[in-house]
Amino acid sequence: MILNSVANDLNLQALHPLDTGWYQENELKSRADAGQSYDLSYRHLSPVVEYDQLARVVPEALLTTVMRNPDTKFVSMFNFVQTTKSQFGTPERFVNDGVFGGQATDQQVNDLCNNMAYTLSGKQDVLGRLTEAESIEYANKMIADLESRNMFVMIMERMEESFTVVCDGMGWDCYSDQHVQIKNTRERSQGGSKVGCAGACLDVIRRCNHVDYALYEHFSARLTEVMKGVEGADGKVEKVRQHMASSRQGAPKYPVNCKKAANQPWERLHTCDSKASWK
């Protein structure tokens, strides 16, 4: 996890859920009301995203997320969610019989179709069954909302450029050889044989992913524009690439929930009590 390494090396305290590995409804509000404040949060939010409360508990933050090419994201998730894979066998059957034939549950649809839009929407809408026209309308409204919050979307296939933008935006030194140890993410292993998807198969899975494709196209173009304004961009991107390729040990794995107590020095950056209460 890249941001975990940054937090560890720059001594930044991270916000984590209190329990269950997810932020519960009104959790961020109650913690903000209690005066808690953190340096950053790099955790997935639940679909009920309390953006305004997040801004209170992580003030002056750059709101960002990572988006992956919808083709590879769908195929990866289809192979990862073993129950869905076993039930439908192929991506085409899942889309044709499951999504549009009514055999898939809402949760299965949200796991695989327009999953990025579903996660970022802050709502519990089922987006995979929208028509193409409805999807484009939804995507346009969503893009306007995210940009009104100054959301910067990192593109997974262009992570070196994306992370350079984040480092510059936050004023972090991510380029010194002796400083931040950036470790790139690795895809989780998936049991059993993997199902692939190409050609006509991709045309099928796009039927239930129109919103994500629109978001991906828009924010990929946005990254290209932002990079034009980064001073010394080529050199910074190359430094980030070198750090990602490094075999040096990264930061310890962050916890599922915030730590009630710190038994190791690094654990203090992951405690439930914010720095405001440190003595």
TrEMBL record:
One Pfam family it belongs to: Gal-3-0_sulfotr
InterPro entries for the chain: Gal-3-0_sulfotransfrase, P-loop_NTPase
Keyword Hydrolase applies: no
Keyword annotations: Glycoprotein, Golgi apparatus, Membrane, Signal-anchor, Transferase, Transmembrane, Transmembrane helix
Membrane topology term: Single-pass type II membrane protein
Primary location group: Golgi
Subcellular location: Golgi apparatus membrane
Family of the protein in this entry: Belongs to the galactose-3-O-sulfotransferase family.
Classification via PANTHER family: GALACTOSE-3-O-SULFOTRANSFERASE (PTHR14647), PUTATIVE-RELATED (PTHR14647:SF87)
Name recorded for this polypeptide: Sulfotransferase
Naturally occurring in which organism (per UniProt): Tetraparma gracilis
Lineage: Eukaryota, Sar, Stramenopiles, Ochrophyta, Bolidophyceae
